[in-house]
Design a protein that fits this description.
mainly alpha
Length: 127
Amino acid sequence: MRDGLLIILFMIALTSLCDTFNQLFLKSAIDSLHFPGKFNLAGVFKFIFQLLIKPRVWLSFVFSVISLCIWLLVLSKADLNFAFSADSMHYIFIALASRFVLKERFGYLRWLGTALIVTGIVFVSLN
């Protein structure tokens, strides 16, 4: 595994990036809809139908499939423990995308937690 460590880390980062795009498209699609006030079966089906006709939902599925394919390739080349730990990069990408793309507010504790995740990924990668 050590021979292709940088390639494996790149593929894991690519998987995390695809997951981030997936989540951004889903969030954008769901935010563009209005969930009915009543929680009944007809309202849920109408909401699901409205969601399924959104192109952003289908784009998110495409990014999910791409991510899955890359992830399967990673699993064929790396130990699961290493790959899954390094896959925590998606927390970093999601935090950055939430802050800068979706303009969500972040407190210092959330940034500290994200920094600790980065530190953990570095430790796992060095081991």
